[in-house]
Specification:
heterodimer; A: mainly beta; SH3 type barrels; 2 helices; 6 strands; 12% helix; globular; B: alpha/beta; Rossmann fold; 25 helices
C-alpha cells in the first residue's frame, strides 16, 4: 500500500489518487473544481519559480498555488501503472 | 402557458456557452443592467414557429456556491421573477465530470432542464465515447449534441426549446446529503454507466505550454505579444481617431451655422457636442485593445499569462488574475475596473481596482504628446532611439511602476482575513472564435461609451458653464455671460488655487486646465487652446508655439523643462477622471474607496510633481 503524501511532493508526471482535502477557506473551491477523494491527479507543469503548479485532473488542467496544493493528500499509484 | 418562454443558459467557463448564445440569438442581443447593482445580463430573443423565446445568458461559473462577483451574478438569474421555464445547460463533453457538477446543483431546483454537449471533437480526440440515449434515460431529460463553433445541431436544439421540457430525475447526492463529495460520487457513477474511455492521447496544448510557461521563453513571448498589441493600438487607431475628430468638428461647424444665437447654441456646441466627441474619440483605441485582449482570452493564452505572472504579482498584493485589468488599464480604466469582477478574493480585487487608474490610459496620451513636443527635443540617442519616444515610453513605465508600488502599500494597509487563492482552470488552446471576439469587443466598447459618456457629458456641461460664465464685477449674485476664461468662474477658481499649486510650478492657467480636465484628462489640451486663444483646437503646433512664448512678467519662460516635467508627472498620477471614480463607486458599492483613491492619487501626483519640479528647477 503506497504512503499518503502531500500533493506537492509528487514529481512532474507522477500519477496519484486524491485521498483527502484538508479544511481551509479554499477547500470548497478545490472540491467544486473536482479535487475530491478518489480522483486521479498528476502534476504536469510548474510556473517559473515553481509556483503555481498545473495539475492534470483526469479530464482537464487545473492550476493552483503551492500552499493550496499542500492541503491535498494523495496516494501515489504503483509506478508500474504510471505512463 | 404564455407564448413567451424564458430560458436561462448556464454552464462552466470555457465550454462554448457564448458561442451557443450567439448562434441561437444572432445579433439580436442586449446587455441589460439590473438597476442599483453591477449585474449585467445578456438577453437575446428568437422565434421558433409562433413561440417567442427569451434567452438569458449567465456568466460561466463552476458552482452554485458563488465565489466571485461574476459567479454571484450568474446564479441570481435563476431566482428572478418570472422563474425560468427551462434551464439550458451546456457542457464540455471532453470534461464531463467537472461540467456536470454545476449541473448536479442546478438539478436540485425542480426546474425543467436540457443538457447540451459541446466540444465532442475534443472528447473524441481524448477517446471518450458518450452514450447519449443512456444519458437521457438516466437523467430523465433531453440531451443534445452540438458544435457551437459551426452551429451544427443547433437547429434541432432550437426546435426542441420551444417544446415543454422535463425536470431531471437522477438523484445527485445521497438522500439529504448534498456535499460536494457526494455529488461527485453520483456524477462518477452516472458517467461509468454512460461513457467509455477508449484511448488516451496527449493534447497539443501540453506541448505549447512547455514554451508558453517556460521561465525565459514564456516571459519573452508575453513581452513580444504586449509590444505587438500596443504598437497596433497606436498605429491602427490613429486613422479612425482622425475621422472622428474631423467628423465632430464638421458637425460643430454645421450646428453653429444652423442654430440660432444664444446660450442654448453655446451649450450644445461647446458643452454637449464637445463632451460627446471627447468620449467617442477614444473608442478606436479601446476597441482595438479589447479586440486583442479578447483574442488572448479566447485562445486560452491569457490563462497562461496569469499562470506565469501569479507568483510575482502575489508578492505585490495582486494575483495572476490582475493581469487582464492592469493591461486593459492602458486603454481605459473604466472597462478595466469592470473586468476585475472575476477575481474571487475581495482584497485582491480591491487592490487591483485601486491601482489600475495609475496605468497610463489613452486619455493621457494627448497631454503627454503636447507636453513632450514642447520640452523634449526630437534628437536621436545612440543614433536610433528618438528621445521624445523614449520619454513617452518612460511615462508608461512610470505609471506601471507606480501601480505596482501602490499595490504593495495597499497590501499592508487593507486588512482582510480570507486568504487569496489561485485555483484556476487552464483551458486547452483553441483557434479564435472570431464572432465571439468581435461581439465582446463591441459590447465592451459600448459599455465604455455608456459609463464614461454619462459622467463626461454632465461634467462637460457643468465645466462649460463654469468656463463661460463669471460673476459680474462689483455685483454679487449676478452672472455675466460670455466672459473671457480668465474672468469666468473657472478662471477665478484657477486663481484661487494658484497659491496651492505654485510649489509644483503651476500658474492659474494650468490651474484652470487641471479643473476642466476632471471631465477627462485630454480636456487639458482643449482648455489650453482656449486660454491661448488658438482658434482650431487641433492646431497643435500653433498652441505649442504660443505656450512656449508665454513668459512671466520677469521675462522667464513659463513652460520651462521643470514645469513641463512636473505637469507630466502630475497627469501620470492624479485621479483626473470623474468617470473612473463613478465606476469605482459602483463596483465597490461604497463611497469610501473612490474617496481614498482620489486622495492618494492626487497626493502622489502633488508629491511627484514637487520632487520633479525642484529637481529640474
Amino acid at each position: 500500500m503506497p504512503q499518503a503524501v502531500k500533493l506537492t511532493e509528487l514529481q512532474i508526471g507522477q500519477i496519484a489518487r486524491i485521498a483527502s482535502v484538508a479544511e481551509s477557506p479554499y477547500k470548497e473551491k478545490l472540491q467544486e473544481m473536482g479535487c475530491v477523494a478518489g480522483v486521479l491527479i498528476k502534476p504536469i507543469l510548474k510556473a517559473p519559480f515553481g509556483d503555481p503548479i498545473a495539475y492534470e485532473l483526469e479530464e482537464y488542467t487545473l492550476s493552483m498555488r503551492k500552499n493550496e496544493a499542500e492541503s491535498i493528500t494523495v496516494k501515489p499509484l504503483d509506478p508500474l501503472f504510471n505512463s | 402557458m404564455s407564448s413567451q418562454l424564458k430560458i436561462v443558459l448556464a454552464g462552466n467557463p470555457n465550454c462554448g456557452k457564448s458561442s451557443l448564445f450567439n448562434v441561437l440569438t444572432g445579433l439580436k442581443q442586449k446587455i441589460t443592467n439590473v438597476p442599483g447593482t453591477t449585474i449585467e445580463n445578456k438577453v437575446g430573443r428568437f422565434k421558433v414557429g409562433k413561440k417567442e423565446i427569451k434567452l438569458v445568458d449567465t456568466p460561466g461559473t463552476y458552482s452554485f456556491n458563488p465565489k466571485s462577483l461574476d459567479e454571484k451574478e450568474a446564479v441570481k438569474v435563476f431566482f428572478e421573477d418570472p422563474l425560468p421555464d427551462t434551464i439550458l445547460y451546456i457542457a464540455d463533453a471532453s470534461n464531463l465530470k467537472r461540467n456536470l457538477f454545476y449541473f448536479s446543483q442546478l438539478a436540485q431546483h425542480k426546474i425543467p432542464m436540457v443538457l447540451v454537449l459541446n466540444m465532442l471533437d475534443i472528447a473524441d480526440f481524448k477517446g471518450f465515447e458518450i452514450d447519449i440515449d443512456r444519458l437521457e434515460k438516466e437523467l430523465g431529460i433531453r440531451v443534445f449534441k452540438i458544435n457551437a463553433r459551426n452551429g451544427e445541431g443547433t437547429d434541432v436544439l432550437k426546435k426542441a426549446l420551444s417544446e415543454d421540457q422535463f425536470v431531471p430525475h437522477y438523484a445527485f447526492g445521497k438522500d439529504n446529503d448534498h456535499t460536494h463529495e457526494s455529488h461527485y460520487d453520483s456524477i462518477i457513477k452516472l458517467l461509468n454507466k454512460t461513457t467509455t474511455l477508449k484511448s488516451k492521447r496527449e493534447l497539443i496544448s501540453n506541448k505549447i505550454d512547455a514554451y508558453a510557461t517556460h521561465p525565459i521563453l514564456g516571459y519573452l513571448m508575453f513581452l513580444v505579444v504586449l509590444l505587438v498589441i500596443f504598437q497596433s493600438v497606436f498605429t491602427l487607431a490613429s486613422y479612425p481617431m482622425d475621422w472622428i475628430e474631423n467628423g465632430f468638428s464638421m458637425f460643430s461647424e454645421f450646428l453653429s451655422q444652423v442654430l440660432p444665437e444664444g446660450w442654448v447654441k453655446k451649450l450644445i456646441i461647446n458643452g454637449l457636442v464637445a463632451g460627446i466627441a471627447g468620449v467617442v474619440v477614444f473608442v478606436p483605441q479601446i476597441a482595438i485593445l479589447f479586440f486583442f485582449m479578447g483574442l488572448l482570452e479566447d485562445t486560452g493564452y491569457m490563462a497562461r499569462v496569469s499562470f506565469i505572472m501569479d507568483k510575482m504579482l502575489r508578492g505585490l498584493g495582486l494575483s495572476g488574475k490582475s493581469v487582464v485589468p492592469l493591461l486593459s488599464g492602458a486603454a481605459c480604466a473604466i472597462p478595466a475596473i469592470m473586468s476585475t469582477r472575476n477575481i474571487e478574493n475581495w482584497k485582491d480585487r480591491l487592490i487591483t481596482i485601486m491601482v489600475t487608474p495609475l496605468m497610463s490610459c489613452s486619455a493621457r496620451l494627448p497631454v503627454y504628446t503636447l507636453l513632450i513636443s514642447m520640452a523634449i527635443p526630437s534628437t536621436l540617442i545612440f543614433g536610433f532611439i528618438n528621445l521624445q519616444a523614449l520619454v513617452m515610453l518612460s511615462m508608461y513605465v512610470l505609471g506601471t511602476v507606480a501601480a505596482l508600488v501602490a499595490a504593495v502599500i495597499f497590501k499592508w494597509i487593507i486588512k482582510h482575513d480570507i486568504p487569496s487563492y489561485f485555483i484556476m482552470e487552464l483551458p486547452i488552446y483553441h483557434a479564435p472564435r472570431w464572432s465571439n471576439i468581435w461581439l465582446n469587443c463591441w459590447q465592451k466598447s459600448l459599455s465604455f461609451v455608456k459609463e464614461a459618456g454619462k459622467v463626461i457629458l454632465i461634467v462637460s456641461v457643468v465645466l462649460w458653464f463654469l468656463a463661460s460664465y463669471g460673476p459680474k464685477p462689483n455685483q454679487t449674485f449676478s452672472i455675466q455671460e460670455s466672459v473671457e476664461l480668465e474672468k469666468s468662474y473657472a478662471g477665478h477658481f484657477g486663481k484661487a488655487i494658484e497659491p496651492g499649486i505654485k510649489p509644483i510650478g503651476f500658474n492659474w492657467k494650468i490651474g484652470i486646465s487641471l479643473i476642466t480636465s476632471f471631465a477627462a484628462r485630454e480636456v487639458f489640451v482643449g482648455t489650453m487652446s482656449t486660454i491661448y486663444s488658438v482658434g482650431d483646437e487641433e492646431n497643435f503646433e500653433q498652441l505649442r508655439e504660443k505656450m512656449k512664448k508665454d513668459r512671466t512678467p520677469e521675462g522667464v519662460p513659463i513652460y520651462s523643462l521643470a514645469v513641463v516635467l512636473s505637469l507630466m508627472v502630475f497627469y501620470a498620477f492624479a485621479m483626473q477622471c470623474m468617470s473612473t471614480l463613478a465606476v469605482v463607486y459602483k463596483e465597490t458599492q461604497s463611497l469610501k474607496w473612490p474617496v481614498i483613491q482620489f486622495v492618494y492619487m492626487t497626493g502622489l501626483a502633488y508629491l511627484g510633481s514637487w520632487v520633479v519640479f525642484n529637481l529640474f528647477g
